[in-house]
């Protein structure tokens, strides 16, 4: 039997303050006999200093030790290029890595002989993707908060308050997608008093979603005439489909955006690859420069939006993700079968194993990614 040990790394991406597991989750590993190595200050910027980890049985260590003392390594976001040199055979590393859009990372993992797991690809027996639920919901809610602030006239918006005020017209919000991000956006917008329209493509799923929504949320199948009518009335549009990539058909066209009400806001929380379903977006934005204007419409596309609320994001994600990380650790260290993590495996034994990543690589090699 291999050593029962895991490591938790500190994030080094600019602006990233989250940590993948909090002390309460670390305790769950410790009571099951795992040694837990936590890199110094891994949780500090999220509000959890080293002494809180030490109090539940973790060993606080330096960066080199965290990478080398265990074969099972957890971090929040994908390793950066400066960390690729640490990859090695026998390592099992899991993070939210979005490997389908990061071919350099995929190749570094493959060449090293390690096993890499994308948390967003963990899939349960029921066919759902339970691990990114918290971050997706936070992204949807933050989309509404950002939109509400930038609708103010001094921010370049139309001057609409994203709330119900007696005597004024109720603001209108369109949400594209009804997953966790779309649900978070729709619920918050509805609670603020907006009239919300949610578009989806599968009626049974949309019907179940609608059953949990308040009365000021209507759910429609994404049919062109209904979609266009809603977009032209919208004060805010939130794009929240599961994935948008090089070959995703256009949904919100540049021409349709040009006919929206001036000063309206579009927030794309999908942050996919290529032009995708919202081709009026030409680039990602940042918290330093969150919006740009095209056709008189404010556009926001911030990657890793929940990074702005590291305390909330770390608390919610840790409470949700530790069970799935435990399953991965038990598979790697104890030989137990674990369906969720095996479904999330991107690279193993020198080969790319996940079908979605292979599909993106094929598009890239076929020239489609560069063409769009």
Topology readout:
Blueprint: E1 5-8, H1 23-30, E2 35-39, H2 50-54, E3 59-61, H3 63-68, E4 72-77, E5 92-96, H4 103-112, E6 115-118, H5 133-150, E7 172-176, H6 180-191, E8 195-200, H7 203-211, E9 217-221, H8 224-233, E10 236-239, H9 254-257, E11 265-268, E12 291-294, E13 297-300, H10 310-334, H11 339-343, E14 345-348, E15 351-352, H12 355-365, H13 368-371
Question: Average pLDDT value?
Answer: 94
Unreliable sequence segments: none
Structural class comes to alpha/beta
Judging from the principal axes of the Cα atoms, what is the shape? globular
Q: Strand-residue fraction?
A: 15-25%
Count of DSSP E strands? 15
> Helical region count?
13
The termini sit apart by 49 Å
Order of helices and strands: EHEHEHEEHEHEHEHEHEHEEEHHEEHH
What is the level 1 CATH name of the largest domain? Alpha Beta
């Amino acid at each position: 039997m291999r050593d029962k040990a895991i490591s938790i790394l500190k994030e080094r991406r600019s602006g990233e303050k989250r940590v993948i597991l909090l002390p309460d989750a670390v305790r769950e590993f410790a009571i099951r006999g795992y040694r837990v190595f936590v890199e110094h200050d891994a949780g500090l910027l999220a509000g959890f200093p080293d002494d809180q980890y030490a109090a539940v049985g973790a060993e606080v260590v330096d960066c080199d030790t965290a990478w080398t003392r265990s074969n099972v390594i957890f971090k929040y976001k994908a390793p950066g290029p400066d960390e690729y040199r640490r990859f090695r055979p026998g390592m099992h590393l899991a993070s939210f890595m979005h490997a389908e859009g990061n071919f350099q990372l995929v190749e570094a993992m493959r060449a090293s002989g390690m096993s890499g797991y994308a948390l967003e690809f963990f899939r349960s027996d029921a066919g759902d993707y339970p691990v990114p639920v918290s971050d997706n919901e936070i992204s949807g809610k933050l989309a509404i908060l950002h939109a509400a602030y930038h609708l103010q006239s001094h921010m370049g918006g139309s001057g609409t308050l994203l709330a119900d005020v007696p005597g004024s017209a109720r603001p209108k919000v369109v949400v594209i997608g009804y997953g966790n991000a779309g649900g978070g956006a729709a619920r918050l917008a509805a609670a603020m008093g907006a009239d919300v329209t949610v578009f989806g493509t599968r009626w049974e799923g949309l019907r179940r979603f609608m059953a949990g929504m308040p009365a000021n949320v209507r759910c429609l199948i994404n049919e062109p005439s209904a979609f266009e009518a809603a977009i032209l009335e919208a004060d805010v549009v939130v794009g929240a489909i599961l994935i948008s990539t090089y070959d995703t058909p256009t949904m919100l066209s540049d021409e349709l955006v040009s006919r929206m009400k001036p000063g309206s806001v579009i927030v794309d929380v999908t942050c996919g690859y290529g032009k995708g379903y919202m081709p009026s977006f030409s680039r990602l934005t940042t918290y330093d420069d969150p919006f740009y204007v095209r056709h008189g419409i404010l556009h926001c596309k911030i990657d890793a939006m929940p990074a702005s609320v590291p305390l909330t994001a770390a608390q919610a994600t840790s409470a949700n993700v530790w069970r799935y990380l435990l399953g991965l650790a038990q598979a790697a260290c104890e030989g137990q079968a674990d369906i969720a993590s095996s479904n999330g495996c991107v690279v193993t034994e020198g080969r790319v194993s996940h079908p979605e990543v292979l599909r993106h690589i094929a598009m890239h090699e076929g020239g489609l990614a560069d063409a769009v």
